[in-house]
From TrEMBL:
Gene3D superfamilies: Aldolase class I. The keyword Calcium does not apply. Binds 2 Zn(2+) ions per subunit. One is catalytic and the other provides a structural contribution. The active site is at 82 (proton donor). This is Tagatose-bisphosphate aldolase. One of its GO terms (molecular function) is fructose-bisphosphate aldolase activity. It comes from the Bacteria. GO terms for biological process: fructose 1,6-bisphosphate metabolic process; glycolytic process. Zn(2+) 2 binds at residues 104, 134. SUPFAM superfamilies: Aldolase. Keywords: Lyase, Metal-binding, Zinc. Dihydroxyacetone phosphate binds at residues 181, 209-211, 230-233. Zn(2+) 1 binds at residues 83, 180, 208.
Length: 288
């Protein structure tokens, strides 16, 4: 298969009460591990890269690896650019083969957020590419974007509806109390707000800051309309911890395959666990 837009995957998820896992990957091995997890469990998959990773690896290398994954497996795979504030980089990624992009103008006033998002929707629609935008501000640290707890603001349901109408955006990430990174205490998810937004907005909703949310809370958020869950920090930790334990046992190790193989395995196991939590296992066949 070729890479697909994430729009039909997420619409199907919203209509059928599950969510699709969107996994942030930073290396070829991380990408392979997540792809193998999805292929073995017949799950639809969204591969994601942050702006930092796009700058680190280059969009062409990432898109080529994702396209190869799509060719090798009979599951729908989308490639998404996470939290981008730079219009030119979004265009570059679309040209490289990304099938989904996020324009994050959530730091700007409402009208400016609408204008920037519309501009991206116009370009992306012509290329059949999904667009995600954010309303309200998700707290925490995501690559180069840092939002302090005092600056995090929750999305207003009626503003969400107006925003979707004005921009034509295909997926919306409303801030509902989750945060990027690892939670210090229990996350304070505003479930009533998710429900209120889902009642007035028909496009699939995206849950950011998915690392460390208890399973029951994820399931509740999904049942209320969250159709995509972003998972980043926990994957990095699983991957890095596996590498650290190889070096703990053998500080002299100098063959990358010796530490990448266990790291891939650890990441793959975690990805399968997250796919189970999302409820997307076995759904691939309904989408191809
Ligand atoms: Zn995010």
């Amino acid at each position: 298969m070729s890479l697909v837009s994430s729009t039909p995957l997420l619409q199907h998820a919203r209509e059928n009460g599950y969510c699709v896992g969107a996994f942030n990957v930073h290396t070829l091995e991380m990408l392979q591990a997540v792809v193998e997890a999805a292929a073995e469990t017949e799950s639809p998959l969204i591969l994601q890269s942050t702006v930092g990773t796009v700058k680190h690896l280059g969009p062409d290398y990432i898109a080529a690896a994702a396209q190869t994954a799509a060719k090798l497996h009979r599951i729908p795979i989308a490639l998404h650019l996470d939290h981008c504030t730079d219009f030119d980089l979004i265009v570059k990624c679309i040209r490289a083969g990304y099938t989904s992009v996020m324009i994050d103008a959530s730091h700007s006033p409402f009208d400016e957020n609408v204008a920037q998002t519309r501009k991206v929707v116009e370009v992306a629609k012509a290329a059949g590419v999904n667009v995600e935008a954010e309303l309200g501000k998700v707290g925490g640290v995501e690559d180069e974007i840092v939002v302090g707890e005092e600056d995090a603001t929750l999305a207003d349901p009626l503003e969400c509806r107006r925003f979707v109408e004005l921009t034509g955006v295909a997926t919306l990430a409303p801030a509902i109390g989750t945060a990027h990174g690892i939670y210090k205490g229990e996350p304070k998810i505003d479930f009533d707000r998710i429900q209120a937004i889902a009642e007035v907005v028909s496009v699939p909703l995206v849950l950011h800051g998915g690392s460390g949310i208890p399973v029951e809370q994820v399931r509740r958020a999904v049942s209320l309309g969250m159709s995509k869950m972003n998972i980043a920090t926990e994957l990095r930790i699983a991957f890095s911890n596996a590498i650290k334990s190889v070096f703990d046992q053998n500080p002299e190790e100098n063959d990358p395959r010796k530490y990448m193989v266990p790291a891939k395995q650890a990441l793959k196991e975690m990805a399968i666990e997250k796919m189970r939590m999302c409820g997307c296992i076995g759904k691939a066949g309904q989408l191809i």
